[in-house]
Amino acid sequence: MIFIVKVLYDNSGETMKKRYLVAVSGGSDSMALLDMLVKSGKSLMVAHVNYQRRASADADEALVQAYCDKHQLTLKCLYPKYLKGNFQNWAREVRFNFFKELIIENNLEKVYLGHQEDDVLETYLIQKKHQRIPLYWGLQKETTINGLKISRPLLNYSKAELLKYCQDNQIEFGEDESNYQNHYLRNEIRHTVLKALTLQERLNLVKEIELENQKLKKFQDQVQIELSKLSKTLLIKQYFKINQAIRLEVLRKWLFESDIDSLNYSIKYLENLESFLKAPTSGNYHLNKKYALNKSYGVALIIDKAIDYSYSYQIENLKELETKHFKVALCGPKNSGVTVSEADFPLTIRNYHISDGINLSYGRKQARRFFIDNKIPPLKRLSWPIVLNRKKEIILIPGLGANITHYSNNLNLFVLK
């Protein structure tokens, strides 16, 4: 992604107590918002994103620039380069990142967005169509998204009212020609559903959203109570004791608090995750390219698939040593000790390999069986230390077992996990 920022007019030298960012596309909604904020006396910086995908894109930027020049406002423009993927999702991420950067760099309070009542209704109908439980039905006037403080003061205005405002106040605005096409679900709903509503039906829909949010608030309060009882390590039995009516939403929020972008997960996807948690076998459920949900012995947790659990240390003589994976000591518990002689050095202490095994008095036992018998979770096994002598024989699996030829009453080396 390429960012090019152009300062078109700057009044940043002025001394102000509070300054705000206002996102302006050049359409009637955002131009009306900008004019209202200017007339309210607020100190503003204006942000405009030109995706350069429409014939009218440069004309929209020019009219925003003209308004800013007239009112001596700082205007900053972004020209991102779209490569591939869902354009709407990409565009939203680009502009929100741009707004956040401007707010941080210029010590601004928040960003004003020009969403209005039609956007609220469209969003609500899309949410219902997707059958997902949102954080809020429709749009909130004040919210924070990924650390970005957002204000939407026009949610009680209809599109028609904002058009009239621009006309009455002689505010020039542009028209996005893509809004007249049905390429996107939002446009389709706008043209086929909202246009057909009578004034009373619109009012009824607004009231419906209000009531749905009241119910959602009670639901989310219950979810939060159950969520507060859980930790980052999820006890599966405890999870399945949660009331089924709110359990899937608890799972969604638990994932979200573990840095998983789960807010758009469908009910079906969450049900699949529940089936994975219910299954008797251990394993990983791959959530995305980076993270997986690991489950073993009644416990689930999020793991980073990029973490490398491999390591190898060489020990030349009897001495104490501490690493992030283990600690070598000259005394300790018997099940972590081994008897070594000069002939065993240099020792190697490395992470567990699936083929590892150790010779006991009753025969050879695979390290994997030790882990299973002692209910060691798979995630912990990956970094479990294994001690080998000069001949590359495994002489100790700390906490679990020692080679028969290296165990005695005179243990002189201990490896602590």
What does this structure look like?
36% of the residues lie in helices and 21% in strands. The protein is α+β, with helices and mostly antiparallel strands. It has 3 domains: 5-196, Rossmann fold (3-Layer(aba) Sandwich); 232-304, no CATH class; 312-416, no CATH class. The strands form 5 sheets. The chain has a 7-stranded mixed beta sheet. The chain has a 5-stranded antiparallel beta sheet with strand order 12-16-19-20-21, with no helix packed on it. Helix 4 packs across helix 6 (185-192). The longest helix has 29 residues, at 199-227.
Number of separate structural domains: 3
Strand order of the largest sheet: 1-4-3-2-5-7-6
**Number of helical elements:** 12
CATH class of the largest domain: Alpha Beta
The averaged pLDDT comes out at: 90
Query: How big a fraction of the residues is strand?
Result: 15-25%
Q: Could you give me the name of the CATH homologous superfamily of the largest domain?
A: HUPs
The global form is elongated
How much helicity do the residues have? 25-40%
The third-level CATH topology of the largest domain is Rossmann fold
> What's the gyration radius in Å?
31 Å
For the terminal residues, how far apart are their CA atoms? 44 Å
- Poorly predicted parts: 1-16
CATH architecture of the largest domain: 3-Layer(aba) Sandwich
Q: Give the total of beta strands.
A: 22
Largest sheet, strands/sense/barrel: 7 strands, mixed
**Class based on secondary structure composition and strand pairing:** alpha+beta
